[in-house]
Design a protein that fits this description.
Layout lengths: L4 E6 L4 H10 L12 E3 L5 E6 L4 H6 L5 E5 H7 L4 E18 L11 E5 L2 H10 L4 E5 L6 H5 L4 E6 L3 H5 L2 E16 L1 H20 L3
Parallel strand pairs: 1-3, 1-4, 6-7, 6-8
Antiparallel strand pairs: 2-3, 4-9, 5-8, 5-9
The structure holds 1-O-pyrophosphono-5-O-phosphono-alpha-D-ribofuranose.
């Protein structure tokens, strides 16, 4: 039997959906208590459960040959991968948002923007010729306008519930974010037969 393919899955919001998607297609994974590496029941895929933000680093360095990840995190990483397929879950939007009661005229000088996604934000403001001061946060970005750190945020919006709960609204949509299966290009070159066969199985749908 071939060596199992190596696939990184993101911990957190995409983990459950990724595992369910794989299980429906015959790749059932059980992680023993607190363990972050497991081989699926068929022995075809070795899974590494890594922090979402670190996933591109593991794939870039070839520790995992493949990864399931949002295009937000991939874009932020700056790494180039082969996109093998788009997955049918987890899509969101990257948005610029502000307090509903914000008077844009009250924002003089450089626009202060808090975000986890500094690359998205920088690209957006450069594209639009707007001088902006980007403040990097690690999460819970919606708090920034509420607490007065920055009037604007760039963040993911899925249901919009988090924005609503903080009296924020979308000002502009920067990009549609998809969840994709990516490959390290060198890994793909050496394992393309097995990788293509995995992609075919995933495309076929529930077993
Ligand atoms: C994301 C995002 C928003 C929220 C949007 O946060 O940063 O906070 O989800 O989802 P909604 O539109 O459905 O409310 P995540 O849960 O990834 O954690 P974070 O706040 O630590 O970034």
């Amino acid at each position: 039997m071939n060596e199992p393919l190596t696939l990184a899955l993101p911990k957190g919001r995409l983990q459950e959906q990724s595992e369910a998607y794989l299980a429906e297609r015959g790749f059932r994974i059980t992680f023993e208590s607190r363990k972050l590496v497991a081989t699926d029941e068929s022995g075809a895929v070795r899974i590494m459960l890594v922090k979402n933000i670190d996933l591109p680093t593991y794939v870039h360095h070839g520790i995992a040959g493949l990864g399931i990840c949002g295009t937000d995190v991939i874009h932020e990483s700056g790494y180039e991968f082969f996109t093998l397929m788009r997955l049918p879950f987890g899509s969101t939007k990257m948005c610029l948002a502000a307090r509903k009661d914000l008077d844009p005229a009250s924002c003089t000088g450089r626009l202060r923007v808090a975000t986890k996604f500094t690359r998205f934000a920088r690209d957006y403001f450069q594209r639009n010729g707007i001088a902006a001061e980007i403040i990097r946060l690690g999460g819970s970005v919606e708090l920034a306008p509420v607490l007065g750190l920055a009037p604007y945020i760039v963040d993911l919006v899925e249901t919009g519930n988090t924005l609503r709960a903080h009296h924020l609204e979308v000002v502009d949509e920067l990009a549609r974010i998809e969840v994709v299966l990516v490959a390290n290009p060198a890994y793909y070159k050496f394992h393309y037969r097995s990788v293509d066969s995995l992609v075919d199985t995933l495309h076929r749908g529930p077993a």
